[in-house]
Amino acid sequence: MTETRGATVAEPAAGGAAEIPRLGISGVGRDFHTKHGVTHAVSGIDLTIPRGEFVALIGRSGCGKTTVLRMLGGLLPPTAGTIEVDGKSLWRDGRVDSSAVTKLGVVFQEANLFPWFSILDNIALPLKLRGVGKKQRRRRATELAELVGLTGFERSYPRELSGGMRQRAAIARALSTEPDLLLMDEPFGALDALTRERMNLELQRIVQETTSTVVFVTHDIPEAVFLADRVVQMTPRPGRINTILPVDFPKPRDVELETTPKFNEIVRALRRELDEED
Ligand SMILES: Nc1ncnc2c1ncn2[C@@H]1O[C@H](COP(=O)(O)OP(=O)(O)OP(=O)(O)O)[C@@H](O)[C@H]1O
């Protein structure tokens, strides 16, 4: 296990050739101008994420995690730096490149399903918006419902499902367009501990089956260590990267991992970093 402070970790290139990373973040910052003055929410973020990597973003409330995710998701333009998806700029002159944004899937804390659509229609909605024919999108949505363990609930409505099931439907919807990059902001934050543990296992399986690259925001340090290949810890005012911690436990990981001394040592090391901010 190596530790890197405030640095970009260069990725080893396969076969010696320089591989274009899935995500290249360079010098990214975001200021907010309000009537009370300027908030430097995020500053000098450098991070390179290769294909297939799972990166967890942790840090105290207000350190800029959501701001970073919104910039990566094409929802908020950076005021400094560049973001590249597969080597292509996501933002140009404050405007998002629509061809780059099609490579992204986003899941938030709230599932945000449409209550008047069935689960199948919710999952298929992004495909409908892209003009995919009814038969094809229903077939794909049915496959995705199976992938996230919702077979048998395709005709149900969101209100008839539990919070965990709704979140699984939201993940299936985000995956429907086969995104190259899945961005998740506290997706399991509203769930009880047991459901959250189950969702972590499910997410791990789904990510392995779809070979997705993931940026996952969480407050929960054990959750971050359980899921991630690297944990990126941010500090506030302005939000910066403080530590990048590789987590090299083999995958798939089992919940038993959380009882091992090495797992707890990593969790404690990250907690210490957060405590040092006080
Ligand atoms: N639209 C906005 N206008 C003004 N300030 C903002 C805006 N959005 C975020 N901020 C400020 O930017 C900083 C970072 O906020 P952000 O929501 O990204 O933090 P966070 O780490 O995601 O917090 P939490 O863990 O509580 O969700 C905060 O100081 C916040 O007040």
From TrEMBL:
Keyword Endoplasmic reticulum annotated: no
Annotated source species: Georgenia deserti
ABC transporter domain residues: 23-261
Keywords: ATP-binding, Nucleotide-binding, Transport
Name of the featured protein: ABC transporter ATP-binding protein
InterPro entries xrefs: AAA+_ATPase, ABC_transporter-like_ATP-bd, ABC_transporter-like_CS, ABC_transporter_ATP-bind, P-loop_NTPase
GO MF entries: ATP binding
